[in-house]
Amino acid sequence: MADGRRNGFLGFLGVLWRGLDFTRRAFLNLVFFAIVAIIVVAAMKGAPVVRPDSVLVLHPEGTLVEQYSVDPAARALAALSGGTSRQVQLRDLLRVIDVARGDPRIKMILLEPQDLSAGGFAALHELGAALDRFRASGKKVIVWAPDFDQLQYYLAVHADRVLMDPQGSLMITGLGSYRLYYKDLLDKLGVVVHLFRVGQFKSAAEPYILDGPSPAAQQADGSWLGGLWNAWIAEVAEARHLDPARLTQQIDAMPQQVAAAHGDLARMALNEHLVDGLVTRGELVAELRKDGVPAGDQGHGIRGIGFTPYLAAINRTDAVPSSGPGVAVVVAEGEIVPGRQQPGTIGGDATARLIREARENPDVKALVLRVNSPGGAVFPAELIRREVQLTRAAGKPVIVSMGDVAASGGYWISMDANRILAEPDTITGSIGIFGLFFNIPDTLAKIGVHAGGVGTTPWAGALDVTRPLDPQVGQMIQASIDKGYRDFVGGVARARGKSFADIDAIAQGRVWTGQQALKRGLVDQLGGLQAAIRLAAGDAKLGDHYSVRYMEKPPGAFGRFLLDMSNSAMARFALAHGVRLPAWVAALAPQAGADLGLLAHASAGKPNIYAYCFCTPR
Hints:
Blueprint: H1 2-45, E1 54-58, E2 62-65, H2 72-80, E3 87-89, H3 90-101, E4 106-111, E5 116-117, H4 121-136, E6 140-145, H5 150-156, E7 161-164, H6 183-189, E8 192-198, H7 215-239, H8 244-252, H9 254-260, H10 265-271, E9 277-278, H11 281-290, E10 304-306, H12 307-317, E11 326-333, E12 336-337, E13 346-347, H13 348-360, E14 364-373, E15 375-377, H14 378-393, E16 398-407, H15 409-412, E17 419-422, E18 427-429, E19 433-439, H16 441-446, H17 471-496, H18 500-506, E20 511-513, H19 514-519, E21 525-526, H20 529-539, E22 547-550, H21 557-566, H22 569-576, H23 583-588, E23 608-612
Parallel strand pairs: 1-4, 1-10, 2-3, 2-5, 4-6, 6-7, 7-9, 11-14, 11-22, 12-13, 14-16, 16-17, 16-18, 17-21
Antiparallel strand pairs: 8-19, 15-23, 18-20, 19-23
Helix pairs in contact: 2-21, 3-4, 3-12, 4-5, 13-14, 17-18
């Protein structure tokens, strides 16, 4: 009996405890969600404020891109956790600089480029032009960084003053294009590589069949790299008021220069007039305060506003119209592959669909195709080219704006535009085509595996990777590659109003800079994205007032919500006071647009045909 009462009492205590625990958790959850709701409401209401005499502080972090490949939710979660998405849209930087030029609340720009990673020169050239426009309005641009690489310095020279930390470094080493070569490795593994190509200079697949670059590849690469380097020297020398020949001599004599400065790279940069001063961040703040920049909050630092909050502020008040008659922009960035792909990779079906949607939209009167691509698979590139052709046939002008790279397949999708614009530093051309087929009979033989069987025709199983490639099949593949090259050159000749022989002479897979391509008739004029948009609007007779809409997949409702919250004043206040999401929350967010490499989309058992260019200097 006693045991029964004791068990009953214990059971009652257990029920009571579970009830209290449930009540406790429910109460805490209610409090938690109430706090979140208050923060969200406050965050959504808090708009960024731009105060008079503010410094626009541009500290872009990550890779400079034409279009985000990281989805909106991941970008917002990264911001709310105090980090970055490691991507910066070129169009956003250009917009911020151009709006700030006429904004009376912005006193000057402070650019800190040390965390900016650029893939090429063309985008930096366009940014430099925007900084020049800002300076032409009478406002100053100051650049400061702990150290510079030569791409960051290429942008930095478009400033009134270039400052560096006394412990910093600047080493200008020139441009190179180096690759790994795999022939010996593939031979040891028993992998047989069959390369089918047309074009004396089409060297993209050479690493699979050679142990080093061919003489033709070295000749061609030396030409376009030399063109880029000469442009770098000329632009930097002009901006820094240096003699180009003297600057070249300084770079060539860098070991002696470093020795003369006793290994102090910052002092060497100052001695050679590459920078204007060596100051710490604290000394920089003191200099800006002397120049009339007000103090920041509570008398510390300077009164400044960052890139992201300023962009959010002007998007609320100075948004470019995206509805009504105007110009549509389709971004084609990354490798060209079949199907529908996320931004950062050009899916033939997806990009073709965006162009088609622009053509069928009655408010779209002209199209700008912004190309930043080394090329890729031929068939998806052809799908995109056809939509460009159909858009022109529908009476809507198409202008191509080339970014850092618009080569090989990137040129294929561009060639039927009404006009093609490139920056002087754009890498373009590489009009050529190649096919790759790998088989592994020797690899299997090394481990005692052999293939055998019968077929109903001599060609049954001819493309089985476990069997040697029949020479006659190789001849058929080469004939197909030859036909593809004729299509490419013939299409360019038709679009550019030249003969096949004229284009063939400058094709052959050879790479050109934008300046070199202009002289050879492969592009129509030099200019950036904004110039292309103005040209498209002019061709469509839109006048001075027109909308600009980007044809891209819009963020979902949740992504927009998070982006708005992460850009709010309350969110920035919380981050400034140490309130942020745990870093692991952002790490769990999906990351799209990873570079999968040339062969990641290859199909087993058939030759893969590419119009591709490995032509990024470093």
